[in-house]
């Protein structure tokens, strides 16, 4: 049976790669936080990644599936920020198609993407935590911005269904890590911005609450409190927390081994390593 060997939550600010490279004052902090997650990700020695994110209107606009899985053999990116180094990443198409079929059989309506590009939400964080030779991945997209979006309960159940699908799989990669990328409170291009930026953090208290519940390993309360009303109050892009909640559905409730927060951005870095390889 395949198994989840670790779960890892990350932000995807598109400016972080250039800030890290150019000596920005936040560069050392960014490198350290990503580095803490990268160390634990490497320690579980995954054979493939399930990468959960939300498309930023680069692939989906006229038609917006609540859930979608990329099943192509590979995809490149980023499609949106040319200052980020472009990469082509392999997709484990067999695993992706298996998960898609399993989820449809479990009555989740999951779109299948036979052609796709990655945007900064995938390429930017992977550049920090998995540089160099790429690892096969399965991209899973959760609609997080334009309403209606799926409930937190539905996304958590989706994660549980993926875990069951992996437990039933005997072929292909057996050690699977999952990464979720997104913020908890963020406004992009809306009315609740910082005075000198095109983004804002409308509900820092919600970020604090999310971190408190993650530190306690209280996934059930987080799912219950992440209502659509709460996510609206937290910003027009705060639905990205559904990426994390989907990931949490794949593991047993537990505090993360490490969690670091940048409250000025409304996001965190966290790691739940489950099965490290000795040595």
Mind sketching the topology for me?
Elements (H helix, E strand, L loop, with lengths): L2 E8 L5 H7 L4 H17 L4 E6 L13 E4 L3 E4 L9 E4 L2 H13 L4 E4 L6 H10 L7 E6 L9 H16 L7 E7 L5 E2 L10 E2 L3 H13 L2 H7 L2 H6 L7 H8 L9 E5 L4 E7 L6
Parallel strand pairs: 1-8, 2-7, 2-8, 3-6
Antiparallel strand pairs: 1-12, 3-7, 4-5, 9-10, 11-12
Helix pairs in contact: 1-2, 3-5, 5-9
Describe this entry's structure for a reader:
It is built from nine helices and twelve strands. With 279 residues, the chain is an alpha/beta fold. It has a single domain, classed as 3-Layer(aba) Sandwich (Protocatechuate 4,5-dioxygenase, Chain B). The chain has an eight-stranded mixed beta sheet with strand order 6-3-7-2-8-1-12-11, with helices on both faces. The protein has a two-stranded antiparallel sheet with strand order 4-5. Strand 11 (258-262) and strand 12 (267-273) form a beta hairpin. The protein is globular, with a radius of gyration of 17 Å. 46% of the residues are buried. The mean pLDDT is 94.
């Amino acid at each position: 049976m395949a198994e989840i060997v670790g779960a890892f939550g990350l932000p995807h600010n598109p400016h972080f790669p250039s800030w890290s490279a150019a000596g920005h004052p936040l560069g050392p902090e960014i490198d350290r936080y990503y580095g803490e997650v990268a160390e634990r990700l490497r320690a579980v020695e995954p054979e493939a990644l399930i990468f959960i994110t939300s498309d930023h209107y680069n692939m989906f606009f006229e038609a917006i599936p609540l859930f979608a899985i990329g099943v192509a053999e590979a995809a490149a990116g980023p499609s949106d920020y040319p200052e980020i180094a472009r990469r082509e990443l392999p997709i484990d198409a067999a695993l992706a198609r298996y998960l898609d079929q399993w989820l449809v059989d479990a009555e989740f309506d999951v779109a299948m993407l036979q052609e796709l590009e990655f945007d900064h939400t995938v390429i930017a964080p992977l550049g920090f935590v998995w540089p160099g030779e790429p690892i096969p991945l399965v991209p899973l997209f959760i609609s997080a911005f334009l309403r209606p979006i799926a409930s937190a309960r539905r996304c958590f159940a989706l994660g549980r269904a993926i875990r069951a699908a992996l437990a039933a799989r005997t072929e292909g990669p057996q050690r699977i890590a999952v990464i979720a990328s997104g913020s908890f409170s963020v406004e992009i291009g809306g009315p609740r911005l910082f005075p000198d930026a095109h983004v804002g953090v409308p509900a820092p208290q919600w970020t604090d609450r999310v971190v408190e519940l993650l530190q306690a390993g209280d996934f059930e309360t987080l799912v219950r409190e992440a209502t659509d009303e709460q996510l609206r109050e937290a910003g027009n892009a705060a639905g990205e927390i559904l990426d994390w909640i989907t990931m949490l559905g794949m593991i047993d409730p537990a505090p993360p081994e490490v969690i670091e927060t940048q409250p000025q951005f409304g996001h965190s870095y966290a790691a739940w390593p489950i099965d490290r390889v000795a040595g």
